[in-house]
Amino acid sequence: MFVVVLAILTGVIAFVVVALRPAIIQAAEFVLAIPDLLQQLAERFGGSSLAGYLASPEFADQVRGAVDGIVEFAAEGVGAVLGVLSGAVGTVFTAFTVGAITVYLMLALPRIKDFGGRALGDEERVGVLSEALRRDRWLRHRAARHLRMRGYHLESSS
């Protein structure tokens, strides 16, 4: 699972670096060159009403606005996709972290109990700790029994 997420993330980063960045740079260059391109078109159509329309600053502003809108829409779309992917990657890493900590604590619980007993030092304090842990086990057992009576089926009720 981790390898798949890492491969997807690498692919997205490669896409942004290889394809998207040059496309944005070219779009910006195109927007800056619109007046010159329209002037060249006007010269080709020399003297016609279309030439006058193409050479007008209003038409250049309309074309620039349309291209800016397309570039902005594409950038927002890519931003949304990257946001969703980053959320998915964050969720996977969070689940992995919770799972790893859970497994570690399950495996280390006997050592933690032993350390707690050694840290308490006094036999009476160790007895209180043992009583509290037994009581916790008793409360969990009672809660599991209550859930089973309500119709919930649990795999283990230790």
Q: What's the gist of this structure?
A:
The chain is mainly α and 158 residues long.
Structural overview:
It is a single chain. The protein is mainly α and 158 residues long. The protein has two domains: 2-120, no CATH class; 121-158, no CATH class. 89% of the residues lie in helices and 0% in strands. The chain has four helices and no strands. The chain has helices spanning 2-44, 49-55, 57-120, 123-149. α1 runs antiparallel to α3. The radius of gyration is 33 Å and the shape is rod-shaped. The model has no long low-confidence stretch (mean pLDDT 78).
Key attributes of the depicted protein:
158 residues, mainly alpha, 4 helices, rod-shaped
What is the fold's blueprint, element by element?
Elements: H1 2-44, H2 49-55, H3 57-120, H4 123-149
Helix pairs in contact: 1-2, 1-3, 3-4
Helix content: over 70%
Characterize the biggest β-sheet. none
What would the average pLDDT be, to the nearest integer?
A: 78
Given the structure, what is the number of helices? 4
Q: For the CA atoms, what is the radius of gyration?
A: 33 Å
pLDDT under 50 segments (min length 5)? Answer: none
What is the global morphology? rod-shaped
